[in-house]
Amino acid sequence: MPPTRKLGKLPKREDPRTLKMARYVKPVPPAPKPPASADWINKIPSWDMYGNDSWGDCVIAAMAHIQNQAQFLTTGKFTDYTIDEILSMYSAIGGYVRSDGPGGPSDQGADLLTALKYWKTTGFLGSKILAYMEVDPQNAVQVKQAIAQFGSLCIGVNLPVAVQQLSRWPA
After folding, report:
1. Which residues contact 22 (CB under 8 A, 6 or more apart)?
2. Structure pTM?
3. pLDDT digits (tens, 9 = 90+) for 84-96
4. C-alpha distance from residue 75 to each of 3, 39, 47, 71 (Å)
5. Which of 97, 109, 126, 129 is the most buried (most CB within 10 A)?
């Protein structure tokens, strides 16, 4: 029997107050042309799963990766967050109840908007973000601009539940 993997991104939530990158990059001032490529990933010493192979905490794991990447690229320091820290954030943001265990009834993931709002207002593992904005994922130039200017992009992909049972995820 292939291993079970957990999906954790809940459906997208909308909030009309969310900043949209398209409103700020055109027509004035014109957005800078993005570079052909920007490689921030290979500079990071390691990428932990942060429990995402057992829990549906992919949104929380992504936040930890983004925070660690920004910290490492600006200070040279890398933090190995503990699974306890990650699950505490999963509980606070996604409503996960620790006594349910992995795959339990409260292990249902989180949505990006709730997570970003929490990160901005309450903080995430010791840091707060000043703002967040939505990027049109269908606009390749906007995606490249966001990655080049901000170093990362917090994106979600809706996968069918059937992929949880695959022994190897497609590359």
Report:
1. 136, 139, 142
2. 0.77
3. 999 999 999 999 9
4. 38, 18, 17, 6
5. 109
